[in-house]
Amino acid sequence: MTEAARRRLVLLLLLAALPVTLAAGVALGSVHLPIGAVAASLARAAGLPSWGAPLDGPSAAILWSVRLPRVLLAALVGGGLAVVGTTLQSVFRNPMADSGLLGVGAGAALGAVLAVRMGWAAQVFLALPLAAFAGAMAAIVVVYVLAHAGGRPSLQGLLLTGIAVSALASAGTSVLLVATEEFRVKTVLFWLAGGLEERSWAHVQLAAAFILAGVALLALLSRPLDVLSLGQDEAASLGLPVHATRLTVFALAALVAGAATAVAGSVPFVGLMAPHALRPRVGPLARHLIPASFLGGAALVVLADLAARTISDRLDLPLGSFTAFVGAPYFLLALRASEGRT
Amino acid sequence: MTAVLEARDVHVSRGRAAVVHGVSLSLAPGEALALIGPNAAGKSTLLRALAGLLRAAQGQVLVDARPLSAWPRGALARALALVTSEDEGPGTLAVEDRVALGRYPHRGPFGPLLEEDRAAIRRALERTGIAPLARRRLGTLSAGERQLATLARGLAQEPRVLLLDEPAAHLDIGHQLRLFRVLDEARARGVAVLAVVHDLPRAAAWADRIVLLAGGRIAAEGAPDAVLASEECARAFDVAIRGHAVPGSPHPLYRFEERP
After folding, report:
1. Which of chain B's residues have a Cβ under 8 Å away from the Cβ of A92?
2. Fewer CB within 10 Å, N or C, chain A?
3. Backbone φ and ψ of B86, nearest 5°
4. Residue A198, SS3 per DSSP
């Protein structure tokens, strides 16, 4: 099989896998929804002809206000984080780069804890995700301003600034957590652990607006991203405005990762796993890897969320912990495999 | 013949350190110029200033008698290509895709791959002899093959000036000979070639002219064998250089010894 044929096959498989995982995510759970009835309900809502009877009563309520927003959110978050991982890995020329490097996660956590500590989260609808999003954006602005204090920074300078700002934000988060009343701490702990419980269509809309727009714009930057992956000197000598391109990519990546983190909390390793697994199969060119990562990351998080909430009857495992339980061993195995090769 | 690339009293700093102090040189179409000098002489810095990656703190670099600052990025990248031995793409990138990125200055972020782009990529692969490796991934190549892929990217740009930073750094003798032959073929098509070369006999055998850089200044310039025989060259490298005439060869055989 030629390389191009294999790439098309992988993309087709991913394209087919996403609806299957979405269907599984909708149908399975503490209450089983028959897939035929789910399809009939969806078809009727879309004004299409359908076979069989749609869901009714409590089952319909579960479909429309619990399962559907949840799986769609899982897909958006997974796809978005995987694309952010892919693009940052191109810019940093390092397969281990992800949104954490820009301070997005730590900034979002600080914003979320602040919203809970100040009581906004309890009073205002969507206050927690909006504060988390604002925190993520604030963190990347701080990273940018500090890194540029001494002129245009190197990638390494940017990376170290991101680590320092993350540490600072985490310290602030800890201080606020300690100072928060106990009954409120649980809200924020749930968010920090990463999860999609009780998310509404408003969360889906918020996430969809930023994640889909950001991913689409990053996909438009595919060729500049490929040029950037060759390194600063070569990219500049090919006529690419390196600094402006990097800045645009970082801003879009922060927007996507910020929105994903705002609605789902911390969902680690998705941005590493999906691109890492797909790069050898579809190649590193962004125009192939971005769509593949989006589909793969989306399916991955839908499945992870499904597993996290069905693996135990007594306890909903936090989604973020689940992706870490799966992602960390994967990461270590991949690391050993790559060390073994060199 | 008019110069396609010209440096006029170029000063370049890296951070606060002044590295290049007032270098002037010019390069004609089809000419081969070797830039030699000891470590830390400022060769790579000068090369990056000539390519427009570093701004001259003072003085000017002109391409086609037009200052670099007056060139739009894309147009400059179509006129002038830089090939270094440091940059490499991701290990999973196919050779052909790597070379195709050399068409970026012609296509821009959204332009389609035209027949002329395909032809340029094909020619670059053939000229560097790596066409059989086209679908191989960079990570599976030897250092020499990767360097040829980088050169092929530079050729795919179809520039009129080719700047190379130690292009033969990782190459075995076979790949070295092939690389300099490819450069000679580019010159024959009118491309001006300026290369930083560490191997002095190789520089002397290949170049039309040598510029010796020492301490960020031009210490000697001229015909290769004259520059190598000069006291300035011996002093710059702190070695004794002796050339022995070889019957039937246009170039002497050089011997280098540490100076007491």
Report:
1. none
2. C
3. -95, -40
4. coil
What does chain B come to in residues? 260
Report the pLDDT averaged over residues B15-36. 95
**How far apart, in whole angstroms, are the C-alpha atoms of residue A275 and residue A6?**
17
DSSP bridge partners of B218:
B213
Chain A hits for B89, Cβ within 8 Å: 229-230, 284
Is the Cβ of A283 closer than 8 Å to some Cβ of chain B? yes
Element (H, E) at B81: strand B80-83
Note the pLDDT tens digit of each residue in B43-92: 999 999 999 999 999 999 999 999 999 999 999 999 999 999 876 788 89
Q: What are phi and psi of B172, to 5 degrees?
A: -75, 175
CA-closest candidate to residue B155, choices B187, B107, B196: B187
Binned at pLDDT 50, 70 and 90, residue A342 comes out as very low
Confidence of residue A159 (pLDDT cuts 50, 70, 90): confident
Buried b (16+ CB within 10 A) or exposed e, A209-229: ebbbebbeebbbbbbbbbbbb
The band of A73, judged by pLDDT with boundaries at 50, 70 and 90, is very high
How far is B49 from B37, CA to CA, in rounded Å? 17
Considering only residues A124 and B197, tell me which one the structure prediction assigns the higher pLDDT.
B197
Phi/psi for B72 (5° steps) reads -65, 145
**ipTM confidence score:** 0.93
Digit-coded pLDDT (tens) for B31-50: 999 999 999 999 999 999 99
Best of B98, B101, B113 to mutate (most A CBs within 10 Å, chain A) = B101
Distance from CA of B241 to the nearest CA of A (A): 35
Q: What number of residues does chain A have? A: 342
Domains located in chain A, CATH noted: 3-341 (1.10.3470.10)
Closest partner residue to B87 (CB to CB) among A224, A231, A241 is A231
Measuring CA to CA, which residue among A305, A321, A207 is closest to residue A263? Answer: A207
From chain B, the residues in CB contact with A283 under 8 A are: 92-94, 97
- B5-258: CATH number: 3.40.50.300
pTM for the structure as a whole: 0.93
Which chain A residues are Cβ-neighbours of B162 within 8 angstroms?
none
Cβ–Cβ contact A295 with B under 8 A: no
Among B53, B94, B107, select the one facing A236 at the smallest CB separation. Answer: B53
